[in-house]
Design a protein that fits this description.
Elements (H helix, E strand, L loop, with lengths): L2 E5 L3 H11 L4 H20 L3 H33 L3 E6 L2 E6 L1
Antiparallel strand pairs: 1-2, 2-3
Helix pairs in contact: 1-3, 2-3
Amino acid sequence: MMITFDAVPDRDRLAAALRSSLPPMLVVQVPAAVLALVGAFGLLTGARAWPLTLLAVGALAYWLVPELLLRRVVRHCWRLYGRRTTWQIDATGVRRITT
């Protein structure tokens, strides 16, 4: 008995798998959060120009940079995994037949 099936690539599923398997973006988010906190503290002390800038840059970096990095990783991995793949299971084992 032989079973053959196709695996159709899905970019959204690849992004979800990479998001769950990549290490947390703490390398980016911790310094961004520190910038935002320094900016918020500066606003509390009465200054206006530099704290608003730090707060805005920190907030943008905290939310935007991890998404941009993930998008770049997905684009790079899609070149390798974005092909339709056919799998064949029979008495000899499992074989991958890339089409």
